[in-house]
Design goal:
The complex is a heterotrimer, with 1 copy of chain A (about 260 residues) and 2 copies of chain B (about 220 residues). Chain A contains 8 helices and 4 strands, in the order αααααβααβαββ. With about 260 residues, chain A is mainly α. In chain A, helix 4 crosses helix 5. The longest helix of chain B has 13 residues. Classes of the chains: A mainly alpha (about 260), B alpha+beta (about 220). Chains in contact: A-B, A-C, B-C. The interface between A and C is large, with 50 and 67 residues.
């Protein structure tokens, strides 16, 4: 027993030192899983044989240490701490037959799997980067040949360009400095001009809304402006005797057609 | 249909002898720095040429030489022998140093492809940092795969031919350590037991059942 | 120059065997971007190499092949065999980046297809020039879709298989949506570099190559 006690103290001192080192170095870590992986190395065992309980305790000490030093930890570090505290209780307490959900062992096994997988990805990432690489260890043809005779423009565009272009359009408004912007207005003059061009073909009765200009139909604000000016323009044309207007009842759609040639 | 007229017509377009086809393939591939697929090469050769066979000949001819014919996915390119890289300091391109996050993300995409952003985050235990995916797309080492047929239909990422070319891989099957990873089950899609907690976001992970097929696509 | 006794004592300063020198010269001349003189090649080779002899060997090896080692002035370079020049004709391509106007128009078509010209203008906030649409049609990245069943029956545009091939997409649906763009950091919180926006008017600044949108008086 005293041996155990002593052992536990010694480990915890080591852990504390390790935790302090981690806290100081927090910027170098990529999230809680990374910290856990680093902590697990202090156990110096195969990741498959790692003690998740010990690891959970080490991590909780790391978080306490950070709190003691008044270092603000990102939320995900705290989420992990809460989860590990939960896991620890599951591992220590006898299983409650009433309780739903996976056992502590299952949760621990999954965490071990995640750590092992992350370490494996680190390993292969290093292997990949250490391979012979184009432009560093082996090379492509430097003097590509081109016989000047047929000229063809090859447009280059990547999917990244495409996505950025779209993102750019969609965020353009965010970058504009604050200034009063006149809403889009389709002027009466424009509407008149347009209606004069169209009216010759309007032999049948047609609704006013059909005469709205393309590009002014989807956006409600623009539509309202176009509707108003188109309406005003049609009144003007009626006054000039070029169109006829009718409306079946109040608030019914307004209809118009070209005034019959001879009347 | 009689044979005689056909013969006459085909003789007009008769493929040159294999030795000649080989020369042509050699010339075409020598002239470009980009890998070319057999189909692209074929489009440049006289009608009736057997590109596959010509490529085999060319490859054999350059074995052990200072320049090799390498296969990159379904394309081909001449590349200098890697052991002679030290002679080429002048041609060496300044390499952009990749962050650890970018290297790991790349490895995860290569070994787990097609893979969603959520899965990358689940493996790394952190959210994918701003610009990491951006950088890898810009290098043309990754591209978009098919959307996952799971709720939310997330986009997936896969590695490209440029990636294979850069790392001297004939196919994604030749990734270092791939076999071992598969054998130890580390590439399996193992959902967390019970109520899944996503370490990156603390949110529940989407149901990822039935996508094992996707994952096998590249490697089987 | 290399004799029997030199063989087993491969000291650091010993020139590699001629076969090896030949490989080196081959690789150097393959990768270089301009013809190199014997002296330039020599400067790259290990000390004691005999460039002149190695060049003779390389030249002989490529005799009658699809590629020749040719002497240009006092420099050396690999060149396509003159009789195969005809194969190189299609190689002549001028790479040009798609203009910003075209890129944005293309993006809108890809994300919103089928989409009319009027709708493109609404989304972009500037009018779309005929030239832009024509270029995209010519590249076969877009094509005409069904006419809209609205007055005037405007034509719609959709993207093509060629588009999908070029951008390495299975389908346009695989493009990440706005939310995903934001999550992956593609949608940045600052205007991307090289994307000038005239803040005063919100109008587009003309492209360098003079392919400006026609700023119709439509909105003024």
């Amino acid at each position: 027993m005293p041996d155990d006690q002593f052992d536990a103290d010694r480990v915890s001192t080591e852990d504390r030192l390790a935790a302090e080192a981690l806290v100081v170095d927090l910027d170098g870590f990529e999230g809680p899983l990374d910290v856990l992986l680093t902590l697990s190395r202090t156990q110096k065992v195969d990741l498959r044989k790692i003690s998740i309980l010990a690891l959970a305790e080490q991590y909780l000490r790391f978080v306490e240490e950070a709190k003691r030093l008044r270092i603000e930890l990102a939320a995900d570090y705290l989420v992990m701490a809460a989860w590990l505290a939960f896991l620890k209780s599951r591992l220590l307490l006898p299983p409650d037959p009433e309780e739903e959900g996976p056992s502590g062992e299952e949760l621990a096994a999954h965490l071990a799997f995640q750590l092992e997988r992350l370490e494996a990805m680190r390993r292969v990432s290093a292997q990949l980067m250490g391979r012979d690489r184009l432009g560093r260890d082996f090379f492509a043809r430097g003097m590509t040949e081109s016989v000047t005779s047929t000229r063809k423009v090859h447009y280059r565009a990547s999917v990244l360009d495409l996505m950025q272009a779209y993102a750019r359009i969609k965020t353009r408004d965010d970058f504009e400095p604050l200034h009063f912007r006149r809403g889009p207005v389709f002027t009466m003059e424009q509407a008149l001009e347009r209606m004069k061009g169209l009216i010759g073909h309007a032999i049948e009765w047609g609704e006013l809304s059909q005469f709205l200009p393309e590009g002014w139909i989807l956006d409600p604000k623009k539509r309202r402006s176009a509707m108003a000016s188109t309406f005003a323009a049609s009144l003007e044309l009626a006054k000039l005797g070029q169109v006829e207007l009718r409306q079946d009842e109040a608030f019914a759609p307004l209809q118009l057609r070209a005034r019959q040639a001879r009347s | 249909m009689s044979d005689a007229p056909e013969k006459d017509v085909s003789s007009l377009f008769e493929a040159p002898p294999m030795a000649e086809q080989e020369r042509m393939v050699e010339a075409i591939l020598f002239a470009t720095s980009e890998p070319m697929s057999a189909r692209q090469i074929e489009a440049r050769l006289p009608h009736g040429a057997d590109v596959a066979e010509a490529l085999v000949h060319v490859r054999k001819r350059y074995q052990g030489r200072g320049v090799h014919l390498t296969k990159i996915g379904d394309a081909w390119a001449f590349r200098t022998a890697p052991d002679l890289g030290f002679l080429m300091q002048k041609e060496q391109v300044e390499e952009r140093k990749l962050s650890r996050a970018a290297m790991e993300t790349l490895a995860i995409i290569a070994y787990h492809q097609p893979v969603t952003r959520g899965e990358i985050e689940e493996i790394r235990g952190v959210s994918v940092s701003r610009g990491t995916i951006d950088l890898l797309l810009e290098l043309e080492w990754i591209k978009l795969g098919r959307r996952r047929m799971t709720p939310g239909r997330p986009v997936t990422f896969i590695v490209t031919q440029t990636f294979l070319d850069h790392f001297g891989l004939e196919s994604a099957r030749d990734l270092p350590g791939l076999k071992e990873l598969r054998e130890t089950g580390l590439l399996e899609n193992r959902p967390p037991p019970g109520a899944p907690i996503d370490l990156a976001t603390g949110e529940e992970i989407e149901d990822e059942d039935g996508e094992a097929d996707d994952q096998d696509d590249m490697f089987t």
